[in-house]
């Protein structure tokens, strides 16, 4: 098969040629956009799931839907080492520009508030070199979004931005990737601001994406967050959707898969979108002709697995220290033992799809749970594992357990 015409796209956040299995989420978001535009109350949205299930791709698709409605949009990626002010200011600067408000005075006033919010990060008395100056021509507003209290400032900021959008009968969407990496104060402020603008009926929504424990992060910050956001769990694709993700791009290039090949691809990928793209690319390159067969899948599998081992699994594994790697392997071994005992059939399927008790991991290492707290906490901060419930942990990456055990 001609590698130049290979349609598959295994990349971080890269939109696949066929966004299969996400019709429900896209359709529901169109309803949200229309309701907000008409002044109807609507909750902000949070997408959760493991890495590789396409959260970032879906987040971008939702943003594109808002852009088509002529909303103002801005996107940011949260980072553990960065506060919310700078990236959110840049995102809102873009959103205000996208609105295209005809009255320049009103726009300049709101941009001045955005600038004041951004510049307040350094704090009063900070040296000039420590201050961040966003690329906004308007003078910074005085007495608005510049108190230094992130919760007060964020409420004032989103209120003014929402008012500008309401004048036009449009809305503003703020799209936040890796939302679980926001600091506690920023999470609390964001929840409070969403609560305030919802009560005020302003056309501003936040769409966040993050790991499965993100709802717990939000709930720990504000108890009412469970009612503030609409949560959507993004998971691996059904067999039908996975087949479409493979077959539709191939058909565009005049190629096809036979039934056994599609079955083999689903068995190899488990329906995880990133894996589908990685295997699809490898199989296309090795297949001599159409239709692609199960034999072609078998030949391509080692190449796809080698690519995933380096780019998807290995890059994350390398971030762990030797002690942390030992902890990760113990998690994988515990998951296998748990599956073999019949307590979790899902873990037997991919050796990483479920949580395991931290006490069992400690027992596998022959150590006390308290002595392993530093390693566990470091892995949590690095985003390699997550804790969805007290006393249990799981991998953030599907099939990671299988990869670890294969490493020996």
From TrEMBL:
Key word Nucleotide-binding present in the record?
yes
InterPro entries attached here? AAA_16 (IPR041664), Cyt_c-like_dom (IPR009056), P-loop_NTPase (IPR027417)
Q: Known Pfam families for this protein?
A: AAA_16
Q: What SUPFAM superfamilies does UniProt report for this protein, alphabetically?
A: P-loop containing nucleoside triphosphate hydrolases
Q: Provide the GO MF annotations for this entry.
A: ATP binding; electron transfer activity; heme binding; metal ion binding
- The ranges of region (Disordered) come to 1-21
Q: What keywords would UniProt list here?
A: ATP-binding, Heme, Iron, Metal-binding, Nucleotide-binding
PROSITE patterns attached to this UniProt entry: CYTC
User: Any idea where the Cytochrome c domain is?
Assistant: 166-317
Q: What is this protein called?
A: ATP-binding protein
Species in which this protein is naturally found: Nocardioides pocheonensis
